[in-house]
Amino acid sequence: MKDIEDLIQKAVELQSNGLVTGQIAEELNVSRETVTWLLTRSKKEEITPAPKDISVDWNSIGKSAKRLHNISLALCDIVLETLEKINAEVDVVVGVAANGIPLASMMAYELGADLAIYHRKGQETVSTGHKGTISRNFGSVAGKNCVIVDDVITTGSTSMEVIEQLREMDAKPKLVVVLVDKKGVDTIYNVPIKSLVRVVRLD
């Protein structure tokens, strides 16, 4: 996406296809506040100042299985380095639907670990305490060391949700690993956050 007009057009298109704010935010890798701003701007309503956010477009990676595989190898290297420091092993790689799943699948294979998939319950209900689920069609997490894989951390709410859910299932979340960290924190709920790229805003 080369400019704001592209983002506005994509946000409007996604909304017209039935996606709600949280889903659009996930698809565009921006915050919910940014989606609201984009949609408001598209209707030529009173323009409020743009939120401080950065859109992450990793389509050039996502459209190529070879590139996804190479990125997954880099993320595996980060996982192994981090777990060695805390003297832990990985039993299960948990992919956050939908964007974390391709990377998590390849990483689980490379790490010799089970694969679990986390489905968010409702994109608009995260703040009200509703949580998602671990799919029954994939690996079990109970009692196991888990590495959580997603594409981008924007506010950290998804990572918080997954960590909470895993702990409620007696799993042991050891690490969250992502392509891009826009939040810029070292830990969430005492779980280390590692990324290939960390975005730091200079205000």
From TrEMBL:
Gene Ontology terms, MF aspect: DNA binding; orotate phosphoribosyltransferase activity
Keyword Transcription regulation tagged: yes
This protein's UniProt keywords: DNA-binding, Glycosyltransferase, Transcription, Transcription regulation, Transferase
InterPro entries xref list: GfcR-like (IPR022854), PRTase-like (IPR029057), PRTase_dom (IPR000836)
Domain Phosphoribosyltransferase: 72-182
Source taxon at top rank: Archaea
GO biological process, one term: UMP biosynthetic process
Domain notes: Contains an N-terminal DNA-binding winged helix-turn-helix domain and a C-terminal regulatory domain (or effector binding domain) resembling phosphoribosyltransferase (PRT) domain.
Family matches, as HAMAP family: GfcR
Family the UniProt entry places it in: Belongs to the purine/pyrimidine phosphoribosyltransferase family. GfcR subfamily.
Record protein name field: Transcriptional regulator GfcR
